[in-house]
Amino acid sequence: MATTQLEHIAKDIRKSVLISLTEAGSGHLGGSLGLADVFTVLYFQIMKHFPEKPNHPDRDKLILSIGHIAPVLYATLSEAGYFEKEELLTLRKLGSRLQGHPGRDHGLPGLELSAGSLGQGLSVAVGMALADKMDEKKREIFCILGDGELQEGSVWEAAMSASHHNLNHLCAIVDRNGVQIDGQTSDVMNIEPLADKWKAFGWEVLECDGNNIDSLKETFSKFPTVNKPTVILARTKMGKGIKTIENDFHWHGRVPAKSELPDFLKELE
Amino acid sequence: MRFYTNKGDKATRFGFGEGVLEAAKLNPSVVGIGVDITASVSMDLFANQFPERFFSIGIAEQNAVGITAGLALSRKIPVFSTYGVFAALRTTDFIRISVCYNNLHVIIGGAHAGISVGPDGATHQALEDIAIMRVLPNMTVLSPADATQARLLTEKAINDLEGPVYIRFGREPVPDFTIPEMETNIGKGQILKEGNDLSIVATGHMVWEALQAAYSLKKKGINSRVINLHTIKPIDKEILIKAAKETGKILTIEEHQIHGGMGSAVAEVISQHYPVKMRIMGFPDQFGESGTAGELLQKYGLTAGNIKKECEILLDS
Ligand SMILES: [Mg+2]
Fold first, then answer.
1. CA B167, CA B183: separation in Å to the nearest integer?
2. What is the ipTM of this complex?
3. Which of B92, B101, B165, B181 is the S-S candidate for B157 at Cβ 3.0 to 4.6 Å?
4. Which of B201, B282, B281, B206 minimizes the C-alpha distance to B249?
5. Strand pairing partners for B141?
């Protein structure tokens, strides 16, 4: 798909994120906006998936380990046709299929995992990749991690096991926005040197501008390698698209006031 | 009719290992996860026969549980086992979210359960695992009485169930006495001895002790009913309420902390449906210690002799 077309889709996804979170009145805006370009490229360029047949046995799978940025996953799934956009307005409400953190028990099509406790998703993705390897099934597994999440030790257990078992069809994407709830990742708990860490754990390491469609397209095209799992360190801006909130970690868990929404939406035009 | 016959001593962990192997022979979806103590939890039977279906994950229990979730989401039936203290406690949040919230058919084997693991001491004695596993939604909790039952329940858990299962078993050889011909269904208790003076509800290794206690009570003219509660969740309300109505008093015995375990689960049923006097026997609210299995069971009163004594006290109260 042409870059301009993908950029247009990313814009629509950001609008959906803003609208659904404003309506919900709570949730995680910053990371959801920051990852809109990654989700766009994955669901509209890279992944093989079937919105009409969400459980198609040949689909690629996306595991969202950072369940709190569910709004961008929901916005992307509806943009791709898994369900109607109006349903986004039920986000976080009683009886909704759009739970605050993804919950498969509520039946939303396209969800691969109920998740929200950090440090678990990569292990699940490893399990899926192991099953595919055993079945000699050609399928890519993508797993989205936060950079703060890398402070969870279990992520590194999973990283070790993925290279040990040569899971080359596994791709982890780290949302490297440099911030987390308490502030800068470097102040809260330094995770650098990040590329060296992943390399030392036996991974192919790619880095890119996670808010640039061309950079993402080019980087994803290098996956998979022959014998190693791949990690993409995607540099993003929390709150990307809305200048007043970009890179402000206070927007990790805040949503726009109803009065702020029209200006935010206008800014995306 | 006798519902059991002692065939000699055998550790329940071997029943688990045999059950996994038997189920795996019939079902190619069964896969195993090892975390460095494969032979100790008797998963080597499976690993040796099906090396291509066995994945070594190293000493990383949390990751192992997350991986089982991924395997189950890809239509495998993963079996993961390590010592109960790690299987149930170190991994609890992974079991809660990745396995139970996703409601996945994952078999978690809690080995070396109870005080009878002995000399290794408190760190390795799983005495809280039933309490923690049974409060997780979707989870089934099994505690077989002996090796034969461990094998049978493991096979059933793999073949017949759909959600997550925690199955608990011990390290030391104990009497292997249940007979496979006796109907054994997950979710249903078993009456191993009839009687109407009081009921002894036991689970795991303590079922044999309860039977011995029941026979020494019988010599004194006391007819107790012995119920093997091999499934702690979902609990068999019917058999418990019937016992309360017909025998009027219930004593529970388990190789587990007295708070939150099988006895508590029984009390939750009895207190709400047909309150009768109860006595909950088990390990006190404290950590274990080193010693031989025999010494520890003796010290903490998890013996037939002590069960008999407590039954008499309950009958007199
Ligand atoms: Mg971050």
1. 19
2. 0.97
3. B165
4. B201
5. B166, B233
- Considering the entire predicted model, what is its pTM? 0.97
- The encoded tokens of residue A75 equal 């916005």
Fold equal for B10-175 and B190-316: yes
Q: What is the mean pLDDT of chain A?
A: 97
d(CA B213, CA B220): 11
Query: What domains appear along chain A, each with residue ranges and CATH number?
Result: 3-268 (3.40.50.970)
Domain residue ranges of chain B, discontinuous segments joined by +: 10-175, 190-316
Longest dimension (CA), chain B: 60
State both tokens at A117.
């406790």
Query: Which residues surround the ion ligand 1 when the cut-off is CB under 5 Å?
Result: A 146-148, 177, 180
Nearest to B98 among A120, A135, A160 (CB): A120
Alpha-helical regions (H) of chain A: 3-24, 29-34, 36-41, 70-80, 121-134, 153-164, 185-188, 194-200, 213-220, 261-268
**Per-residue pLDDT tens digits for A181-233:** 999 999 999 999 999 999 999 999 999 999 999 999 999 999 999 999 999 99
pLDDT single digits (tens) A78-87: 999 999 999 9
Kindly tell me if the per-residue pLDDT of B1 is higher than 60: no
pLDDT of residue A134: 97
Residue A113 contacts residue A63 (beta carbons within 8 Å) = yes
Tokens found for residue B54? 């066995």
- Asked if residue A113 lies in contact with residue A121, where contact means CB atoms within 8 angstroms, the answer is yes
Window A:148-177, CB contacts with B under 8 Å: 154, 157-158, 160-161, 164-165
User: Quick check: B164 contacting A, CB < 8 Å?
Assistant: no
| CATH of the structural domain B190-316, one choice from 3.90.1200.10, 3.10.20.30, 3.30.2350.10, 3.40.50.920 | 3.40.50.920
From chain A, pick out residues whose CB is under 8 angstroms from the CB of B65: 123
CATH architecture for the domain at B10-175: 3-Layer(aba) Sandwich (3.40)
Find the length of chain B.
317
- What is the distance between the alpha carbons of residues B130 and A191, in angstroms, rounded to a whole number? 37
Helices A261-268/A3-24 angle, 10° precision: 180
Instruction: Tell me which residue of B96, B108, B126 sits closest to B43, measured CA to CA.
Output: B108
pLDDT at position A53 is: 98
One DSSP character per residue, A62-77 reads: EEES-GGGHHHHHHHH
Residues in a beta bridge with A33: none
Strands A183-184, A179-180: pairing kind: antiparallel
- Tokens in use for B104? 């996945």
What span, in angstroms and rounded, lies between the C-alpha atoms of A88 and A72?
10
Ligand 1 centroid distance, CA of A38 (Å):
14
3-state DSSP assignment of residue A192: coil
Q: Span B81-95, mean pLDDT?
A: 98
